[in-house]
Amino acid sequence: MVIVDDHLALLALAGRLPELGLGPVATTYCFHYRIARAVSDSRRSGTLSRRLADPKAALERVMRPPADRLVVLDPRQSLHRAVAVADTERANLLLAELVGAAVHHGAAVRVTPENTGRGWPQIMAGAGVDFGNVMI
Amino acid sequence: MWRCMWRCMLTVVRRTNIYLTDAEQAGLDARAAAEGSTRSEVVRAIVDRELNLGSDADADLDDALGEVAAALAAHARLLSADDVDLHIS
Fold first, then answer.
1. For B89, which of A38, A61, A92 is closest by C-beta distance?
2. Count of structural domains within chain B
3. What's the domain range around B66?
């Protein structure tokens, strides 16, 4: 399994994510929330709402992603790992959940360069997580 | 029964075996009897609902989401920039 950021998750939802060769594609609750909020808020952005011909349908797709394209991981399963990461790395919720989920599920993590925090590669390496960027 | 046969004729389905408890089988049979359906049809409906697989993919929506993904991701970063829990740091 590979856990991806919001950008890659959106491409997965649209069936447009290049094959990563790492098994099923999943994302975290925090990244899922960020996507849903961005799509919901797109109505305030003229450019985005024009490009999303049917924002309501887009929001419905994002809220209820077909599991054969994108799985949203239950944060409760990896809560103990996320708390440990927050303790040791002083990570915020987004990063703690991401690292915790990757460790708990034995999953790789792939994100876009724009969504890579400064210390993320070191933190991922310290946790033994297969981490990398995907250029889109 | 006819509904199930129509669905099986229109959708490719594959046989699979799963182990269920007596209570689970009884529950499925009760639901099937109430709906005039079959145990298999009830299981497929539950799986579709749980995995959000009920509706066919919308190619136009796929195109729109694919084209706007980068802009939406940038918008998500903007919205989360001042959120201590959700920003990229």
1. A92
2. 2
3. 57-89
